[in-house]
Amino acid sequence: MKKTRKLRIVHTESSCGWGGQEIRILEEARGMQARGHRVVVLCPEESKLYKRAKHWGVEAVALPIANKRLRALLALRKWLKHSKHASVINTHSSTDSWLTAIALRTFANKIPVVRTRHISAPVAVTAANRWLYGHAAQYVVTTGEQLRRELIETLGLSEDAICSIPTGIDTQRYVPGDAQGARDALGIDKEAYWVGIVATLRSWKGHSYLMEAIQALTDRKIKLLVVGEGPQLEALQQKVEALGIEARVHFAGNQQNVVPWLQAMDVFVLPSYANEGVSQAVMQAMCVGLPIITTAVGSMTDVIRDRDTGLLVATKDSVQIAEAIRLLEKDRAFAAALGKRAHAFAQEHCGLDRMLDRMEEIFQRCAKKST
After folding, report:
1. Could you say which DSSP state residue 289 is in?
2. For 111-143, how does the pLDDT look when each residue is reduced to its tens digit (9 = 90+)?
3. Contact indicator for 166, 350 with CB cutoff of 8 Å
């Protein structure tokens, strides 16, 4: 077996929110620890990442890096100076990437930086961003191929210094299950046709368009299961009331274990219209063997191929969402075939070990170059 150097990997994350990006950091950190590497996450004390890291078994250090301020820069620089030497730093958001880049400019011995770009929001084409991505970072990782192509084309990054590594899913945990048994355990209607979404309640996830689609489907057996919490909760609850579909929508809130909720669904829908790489929730639903309805936002087409591993609909189009749900509800054989192909694709391409193998190779390569 090939021996690998044991690394000290430092992650920085300025975000105080909670979603796929933060989950990937913790999942990756825990996986690297299991491989014998030392990992620490630097993040704001008020962040959900800091509060939840201990539960994941990941070391987190609180630093005031939520904003681009001198205090944040000095705190980060002090930690890097006095901590044991890092083999590599993996930055994740704009603020912590800039703070890290500037702090490292003051050191004689540079620590290699890997910048992970998680979402499809456009990066401003400026000289500063060309420097941040092309020089301050030794390597760039995106969570989807379309995001990679966009950075190459807009910022002129070398193809040899950037790659796409979608977030890995634990294919031993996310597995097909007994829908009726799951519904019994969760206490939800066993006779309904459950359309489900697992996502933070943010506007760009498209919940409101999905709710409009549910209203348009007159069969009252078709119900919506909303798993997640977030800033749009009150607005979405009001939307449900305005549409008159309170009896057909179940808000499940945030769930530590979403597997039974996925297993209880008949179809999974994620109608995002912005800020996606390759959605972890979509890949989790694929692993569970669900038929998927989603959009081509970000790099979703890396895993969802229309009418093969799922159905693609236009963004912000409740009519198309409704038509796709109706098709899957009427043609159960077609829906089952989509789910089966999605499951097979996810098993082969979306596993956690695949992500860890590729990230570990990049960390090792960057650390070796700095020695």
Report:
1. T
2. 999 999 998 888 999 999 999 999 999 999 999
3. yes
